Each structure stands twice: as structure tokens, then as C-alpha cells.
Amino acid sequence: MAQATANPEQQSARQGNRPMQTQAARTYQKVKLTETTEDELLVTYAPVISQMVYRFAPLARVTVDSDDLKNIASLSLIQAAHGFDPTAGMSFESYARMRIRGAILDEIRKSQPLSRSVYSRRKEMENTIESLRIELNRQPEETEIATHLGVTVNQYRALLDELRPVIFVPLHQLMEGDDEFSYADNQYTADVTQEDPGETTVRHELHELIRERIQQLNRQQQKVLLLFYYEGLRMKDVAELMEISESRVCQINTEAVLSLRSFIKRQERKI
Fold first, then answer.
1. Which candidate, 108, 97, 107, places its Cα nearest to that of 47?
2. Which of 145, 162, 184, 259 has its CA 20 to 30 A from that of 41?
3. What pTM value is reported for the model?
4. CATH number for the domain whose boundaries are 114-271
5. Could you say which DSSP state residue 166 is in?
6. What's the rounded Cα separation, in Å, for the pair 14 and 51?
7. Is the pLDDT of residue 224 over 80?
């Protein structure tokens, strides 16, 4: 089986820069930002920004300029530093990463406007998958979903491709660490640090339910989610490891996220 290796930006973000980022976070919590300290902050977090751009840009269905994404992410980092409240209960590093990631994903979404019909199809797909899951008491196969929708498997996969832009952003909000877990379709909220204890409890309860739901997905779906969202690999790297095409990996990811979204909405109505 092919072995995908993390690129230098990924390795740097995971290993060598963590102490620097932690130290930088402490520094910017204590001093007023100047032009000099802003430059230092940008240098410190450059590997983080590059890693996020490297991971998320390929998910867009249209070409997105990586340099533009890096510039937008850099601006969001400076804005985060100026607006950060160290008494609000979130570390600067977590807050900065949330803002950087949100800026990148928001820009990707803006670059590919979608019609109302696409969102309508997403809702139909979510409802279909969840109703079949309840009926079958297991994760439905793509052939079963396609049959229920009245389309062929190839047509179903084409639908998954079409829905990709309205899928990957929300899931990433769900799948990150507990401190950054926030489910919202349209934006990352800058007010996560203001969350009250009751909301935090509900959020963590939902997060645990999501973890349990992931265990019910089929093996391919679980593997894609693990490698992309937790291990930080690109879709291209995931495809090499799984020995399937990159487009197929994206389809599997979309189907898995649709499954999770429909489940989450159902659980939110119960909580």
C-alpha cells in the first residue's frame, strides 16, 4: 500500500513550532501589539497558516489562489491578536487557530457561490441517509441511498461531487478539538470565548454523540475522516493510502459528513 508522507509544512506545524506558538501566545496576551510584534506573530504562525491553506484549498471545486488565502488568514491572525481577551477562558493559540481556519474556509466558500437548489439537494440527501439509517439500523450503502433517491450509483456520486462545497466547512468545525467545537452553517463565531457553562455542557454532550455516530459509519468513511480531520493529511495523500482516486475520497467524505449532519440535527432537536 502506498505510504503518504506529510509535507514539510505539516511536519513543522505539528512538531517544531508548537513551543514557539505557545510562547508567542503568552507574549501577545501581556503586551500591546506593535508593528514589530505583529511581524513576529506572523512569522511564528506562518507554518500554521501554510498548513491550513495546504489542506483546505484542494477541497474547493474551483481554483482558489493560495497566496490570497494566506494573506486573508494573516489578516485574521492580527485581528484575533488585537481582539483577544485572555480572561475569557480560551488560550490565544486556540483562539488564533479558530480565527485563521475560519477565515480560510469562509474565503473558499465565498469563491464558489451556490444556488438554493444545491442546498435543497443537500437537505434531501441528509434526510434520506438518516431515514435509511434508522430503518436499517446501520449505515446505508451507497446503492441503497441511490435507489431511494431514484438515481444510479454514478448519478448519486455526481450529486456528492456537487455538494462538496457545502459539506466540508461545517464538518471541520465539528471535528476539531473540544475547545473549538462549534456547529454553525454560515460562519465561525468570534464569540466562542463568551460561551456560558450551560452551552458548554450541551456542546460536549453533542460532541460525544458525534464520536459514537462516527463509529457507526462504514470503514472507508471512518478512515477518510480519521486521516483527513485528525491526522491532517490532504485528500491526495488519503487517496494514496487507501489506493483509490482522490475524487472518490472526496465523495466518501461528503457522504460521511452528510450522515453526521443529519444525525446532529436530529440530536440537537432532542437536547
1. 97
2. 184
3. 0.60
4. 1.20.140
5. G
6. 9
7. yes
